[in-house]
Amino acid sequence: MTAGIDLGGKVAVVTGAGRGIGRATALALANAGAAVVVNDLAGEMVEEVVTLIRGIGGKAAGAVCAIGDSAAAEQCVDTALSRFGRLDIMITNAGNLRDRVLWNTSDKDFDSVIMTHLRGTFTCARAAARHFRAAGEGGRLILMASLAGQRGNFGQTAYAAAKAGIAAMARTWAMELAKANVTVNAIVPNALTRMTETIPALGPYAAMAERGEPLPEHLRSNIGIGTAEDVAPLAVFLSSDRAAGISGQCIGLGGDRLSLWQHPQEKQFALHRGGWTAEAIAETWSATFQQSHESIGIDMGEI
């Protein structure tokens, strides 16, 4: 059991739990005492994680399905209710990648990423929210956002769009579900997983993590990137009673770096009585706004 955090009696669904962050999260929740529904589209991976959890004395059940449509979401919730009699925590982690620059992104690639990440988060959260409201015992929705959704990232049109949408949904649902005592937060993870192993600069470090070797201090602290296991404690904390007052937040964790992300808000403004002309905008922009442009992209520092 995770020191100081007890999830005994709680039941969680973790989508995309066959590998990476989902797998690490499922194991961490089980170690903290929760019963876990392990979802993935690969049956052998689901069975492996279920077996691991049972091997440490935990409770687990599998839900083999591809996250995206309503039927898959209902299957995950129904598995929790039929096997463990309740549902307390829904963690929407399932995802995929179809990285392409804008002009090379096909409709099929875009739709695949949106279906799994954005629609899958929506359908799973909706199914859980309906249960939470009917049961009247509160609950936890924990969504997986991304640095790409916060900052943008070259070659990740669909992924960045989906993850930005997930962050927005977390803020919206936190308001909608507050009266039901359901908290909604988005994790912004930064970990060396299969979703980062194709980035050339991170390749050698991904190999180090795969071999179980410790990652360099500057990577864990300055860049704030680590392993999937480094991210999992945040999901355990947000699932617990100690996080009852936290909702509508985007919270980052990578390596040794825990962070609270600032939501978009109006940064600067100017007034022009009677309305603006294009010329007035041009003059005011260069005088007032030009030096305040926001930066874009993920800062990888000195890797």
From TrEMBL:
Belongs to the short-chain dehydrogenases/reductases (SDR) family. This is 3-oxoacyl-[acyl-carrier protein] reductase. Signal peptide: none annotated. GO terms for molecular function: 3-oxoacyl-[acyl-carrier-protein] reductase (NADPH) activity. Residues 10-198 form the Ketoreductase domain. It is an enzyme of class 1 (oxidoreductase). Its EC number is 1.1.1.100. Keywords: Oxidoreductase. It comes from Pseudorhizobium flavum.
